[in-house]
Design brief:
The structure is a single chain. The chain contains 22 helices and six strands. Helix 2 runs antiparallel to helix 21 and helix 9 runs parallel beside helix 11.
Length: about 525
């Protein structure tokens, strides 16, 4: 049995194309399960993004500015939205969730049926100032199919787009010599919130997926240099960077942060090799051009919203409130669904951080001071970045921060910790197979538990039957179908992590010659290492 699994693992992980195809299929299954098991209008502000996508698909990249009364975090204001011309039934998207949002005990069956009027009217969207590139990718199904079917198809296109980015990240993780722990670190970065947002029409989905790809490309590029793999790593970094930078203005900050952290972990010889490669400069020019386009769009579409900020709400008070909400934001990054009204169950919040903390402890215990410093710096950013961002914008936009806004950068925490562990922990120092096996099992259970909990909330409400029967609201294809599909998809990712640990690497670079004083330190580490098992 062990030999059979090893042969299967070798065939799976040592073929980048096969690994990419299988990973892509698994991520499509996971994203589609979220897409079809979430009622239309049941995710944060999705109706605004659906309207934006449908308008961009019809060539309406811009529209007329419309001031709309709105309230955010208890503060009234006049919000600048964009008016576009769409079929009348699009107007109904903004109210379909009102009967069950923020009411966890109520299932989604109370939502009224979507109308069918094709009369062209003005529809407003709060996403009218966003960069149109993502919406052009996901909006075209609305030209072919109208009604809910077209909206679900837009979700599925977004899920496929994110799946392609994440599958490339899996292939990048499989190129490490100790790829089992690297794939496990990647799985720890793919929180339920990451997969959930990938299945919605929301720029947060591809933004987070692009952040994962950027980290997966930047870390090995500078930590395990290999000239034969450099061009494909630059390709991944460039694609991830272009997507990340052109989703939201903050994307440039997350991209720069990931690259800086990778440089702080880099070998000197790796930096020289990257700088002397012609492809580096070509991708640098493309990223510079992409940044220019993104900044030009943002400057040409300023936000004219006006919020009535109370006198007591100063930047200092905003910073204090944001700091106090740090644990809330961490929970949101792991799993908080619907309109942030469906937190993941306790088992998810217990098991997921446990896997990430294990990777962090390995990095801090075995990493060099510089490597430990980078991991600690990312942990500090987890708390300080929201505080600084919210305080600087408090008097303009109020309290609007959510955990998913930082996730494109924070996915790098388990990935960077896993990278340090992969390089520094002695090969005989830990029972690696057992460690990776338990991590894969832990993350799979936590992931599926979050999906089941959210599915129950949507179908019967938290006051309904514990075993989701009888279902008051049923997604297309039945809830049982998507529960089984999600379980298979999550299990498939765990199998890839186990396969990466068992199969010998055919593409991983040979150990790079240590530079400077690393030879002495590495010999000392080898003498101290005591093989176990």
């Amino acid at each position: 049995m062990t030999k059979t699994f090893k042969r299967i693992a070798d065939r799976l992980v040592n073929s980048p194309r096969r690994l990419w195809g299988i990973s892509f299929l698994l991520f499509v299954v996971l994203g589609s399960a979220w897409s079809l098991s979430t009622p239309m209008g049941g995710s944060p502000d999705e109706y605004a993004h659906l309207v934006r996508a449908a308008a961009v698909a019809r060539g309406q990249v811009n529209g007329t500015e419309v001031m709309v009364k709105h309230q955010v975090a208890g503060m009234d204001g006049q919000f600048a939205e964009t008016g576009v011309q769409l079929p009348e039934w699009y107007r109904e998207l903004s109210t379909r969730h009102s009967c069950y949002a923020f009411q966890q005990w109520q299932s989604a069956d109370c939502a009224p049926a979507l109308g069918s009027s094709e009369k062209t009217v003005e529809v407003t969207t709060a996403a009218g100032r966003y960069n149109p590139l993502y919406y052009a990718v996901v909006g075209w199904p609305s030209l072919l199919v109208s009604g809910e079917l077209g909206l679900y198809l837009m979700r599925l296109v977004s899920a496929m787009f994110c799946a392609g980015l994440l599958a490339s990240a899996v292939v990048a993780a499989a190129e490490w010599r100790r790829r089992g722990i690297m794939i496990a670190g990647l799985l720890a970065a793919l929180t339920p919130t990451t997969l959930y947002m990938g299945g919605m029409v929301n720029p947060s989905g591809p933004e987070i997926a692009a952040g994962v790809l950027v980290w997966s490309a930047a870390l090995p590029m500078f930590m395990t240099p290999d000239r034969a793999l450099l061009n494909r790593r630059l390709l991944r970094l460039g694609i991830g960077g272009l997507v990340l930078i052109n989703i939201r203005p903050l994307g440039l900050v997350w991209f720069a942060g990931a690259v800086v952290c990778a440089l702080l972990l880099a070998q000197r010889s790796a930096v020289r090799m990257v700088v002397r490669t012609r492809a580096t400069w070509l991708w640098g020019l493309l990223l510079l051009a992409g940044t220019g386009v993104a900044m030009a769009w943002a400057m040409a579409h300023p936000d004219h919203s006006v919020i009535q900020i109370p006198d007591w709400f100063t930047p200092l008070n905003a910073a204090r409130r944001t700091f106090d909400n740090s644990l809330v934001y961490i929970h949101q990054m792991i799993g908080d669904f619907g309109w942030l009204d469906t937190p993941a169950p306790a088992i998810t919040w217990l098991l997921w951080p446990a896997a990430v903390i294990l990777l962090i402890l390995l990095a801090l215990c075995f990493g060099r001071p510089r490597q430990a410093f980078v991991v600690l710096a990312i942990m500090v950013a987890l708390v300080l970045v929201p505080v600084a961002a919210q305080a600087s914008q408090a008097t303009k936009i109020g309290m609007v921060w959510q955990g998913r806004y930082l996730l494109p950068f924070m996915v790098g925490l388990p990935m960077a910790a896993a990278a340090v562990a992969a390089l520094r922990v002695p090969s005989g120092g830990l029972p690696w197979r057992r460690l990776i096996g338990w991590m894969a099992l832990t993350l799979t259970v936590a992931n599926v538990a979050a999906f089941v909990w959210t599915l129950r909330r949507n179908t019967v409400g938290t006051a309904g039957a514990f075993f989701i029967h009888p279902a008051h609201w049923s997604p297309p294809g039945s809830w049982l179908l998507w529960l089984l599909a999600y379980g298979l998809g999550a299990t498939g990712l765990a199998v890839i992590a186990l396969a990466g640990d068992r199969a010998p690497s055919a593409t991983a670079p040979a150990p790079h010659p240590p530079v400077d004083g690393e030879r002495v330190l590495r010999r000392a580490d080898d003498r101290r290492a005591t093989p176990v098992g």
